[in-house]
Amino acid sequence: MSLFNRNRKGGEKAEMSFIEHLDVLRGHLFKSAIAVVAGAIVMAIYSNAIIKHVLMGPTHPDFPTYKILCRLSDRLGLGERFCMTHIKVQMQSTAVSAQFNVYFNILLIGGFILAFPYVFHQFWRFTKPALTPKELKNTRGVIFWVSVLFFLGVLFGYFVIAPYTINFFANFSIDDNIENRWTIASYFNTIIPLILGSGLAFQLPLVMYFLAKVGVVSAKYLRRVRKYALLIMLILAGIITPPDMLSQIVCTIPLMLLYEISIMLCKKVEKKEKEAEAEWQ
């Protein structure tokens, strides 16, 4: 039994076998892999600048986020309360191939981030034949919005989540005699999931939109659990940020905005469905 219908010769739609589906999927995966490799090559060309100024950026006192917070603290008359100028940590490599493995992972993940719009485009082309004309109409522009939200999430993770996390752990110590010496693997294994996770977290509005389309969630339900969602976001912000209210607000506001956008999209879906039902009746 087939999953999708594909156009064949003469414009007729014929069912595809499971093996044919695997063959089509393999083609899309191969094209996606080529795009990721191309992105990795670009990363390799500029690897020195990317590693030194971008990935290692949150460990530098002159990181843009630290400067902005310090200026904001000064304008609010709070002195250096929100300044993050003391990064008490040193990097080390404790394995023979540690730096090579980290370098390879950086190229691969960076290549995926650069190629994300094309990778999602290939995924969309594979799933598109399974959708009805009405569903296709409702998902118009999905590649653009998924890509925009992903890159906004990546930027939010890099400029907000990552520096707060690195600064907190760099200055956290249970005893003055203990010095923070991180391995490069542990450092990159900490910030990269935060950045990618933020990119995926910013897909929340679109995920809720499609869940509303299939009737899994509703705007009423999201409003009812809003206080629990806010509590979870505040707890997460409290874990990854320094123990002050401003830092938690900076991390929580964008997530709550995404949640409110999700509610608005669900309301829009429900309104269209009611209009369509009334028209049909």
Summary keywords:
11 helices, 4% strand, 281 residues, mainly alpha, 2 domains, flat, two-stranded parallel ribbon, two-stranded antiparallel ribbon
Describe this structure in words.
By secondary structure, this protein is mostly helical. The chain has helices at 18-45, 47-55, 64-75, 98-127, 133-138, 142-171, 184-201, 204-213, 219-224, 226-240, 245-280, and strands at 5-7, 13-15, 90-92, 181-183. The chain folds into 2 domains: 17-202, no CATH class; 212-281. Helices cover 71% and strands 4% of the residues. The strands form 2 sheets. Strands 1-2 form a two-stranded antiparallel ribbon. It has a two-stranded parallel ribbon with strand order 3-4. The longest helix is centred in the C-terminal third of the chain and has 36 residues, at 245-280. It is flat. The two termini are 35 Å apart.
Uncertain segments: 1-13
Tally of separate helices: 11
Question: How would a crystallographer describe the biggest sheet?
Answer: 2 strands, antiparallel
Number of beta-strand segments = 4
Portion in helices: over 70%
- State the strand order across the main sheet: 1-2
Question: Which range does the strand content fall in?
Answer: under 5%
The class by helix and strand makeup works out as mainly alpha
The tally of structural domains comes to 2
Gyration radius, to the nearest Å? 23 Å
Chain-averaged pLDDT? 80
What is the distance, rounded to the nearest whole angstrom, between the alpha carbons of the first and last residues? 35 Å
SSE string, helix = H, strand = E? EEHHHEHHHEHHHHH
Shape: flat
